[in-house]
């Protein structure tokens, strides 16, 4: 649903840019109402559906699954594999390895989203409609590729699938580094967008699978693990943006 909401946002932005002044190539103060209306629409629709979810969604207890059965199943799981508390994770080397993996994935996905509009307008000097079409291609290709990641994992395994996603991500970075000319801005950039979308979707799905496999039966501390991954991800992205802005200010 997150991907679909992002696609809807960029589609609406593309439509509004299409009916606005076609003679104005770059975004400026005159485009402020466009971004305001899109932002208010996104917040309004999101708030409406969030309200509808909380009002009309009712939680039901499963009569075939009692509390006693939960206790029995949990006890049997503890026999197979010990449960880890939130303190125990700090002594697990795999906890730091998966955190580094998830952080690297989020750095690639988030930074490509943040700097793509500025890359399109400031570096390539393309028309402002491209700041909607290129991210739209990224999200659509990522959404479509998410359906085949499951089969890739069964076919190649989780590690080789992540390696394949990493190679696609590296290929997109190399293409951006060497890309130049009118052909690159008008046509090849869409190929770069497809690579970024497929690579980002593959890496993100597999990194979440790594996290779930890491938690295994330690579901009581699963929230701490996912929270730690998210904290490291946000911290690393903030530091990366500060460093990039110091080296190449936008």
TrEMBL record:
Cellular component per GO? plasma membrane
Q: Nucleotide-binding as a keyword?
A: no
GO BP of this protein = carbohydrate transport
Looking at the UniProt entry, the stretches that span the membrane are 34-56, 95-111, 131-149, 161-178, 190-210
Q: Which UniProt keywords apply?
A: Membrane, Transmembrane, Transmembrane helix
InterPro entries from the UniProt entry: MFS, MFS_2, MFS_trans_sf
Q: Please name the GO terms that the record assigns under molecular function.
A: symporter activity
**What does the sequence similarity comment in the record state about its family?**
Belongs to the major facilitator superfamily.
Q: What is this protein called?
A: Major facilitator superfamily domain-containing protein 12
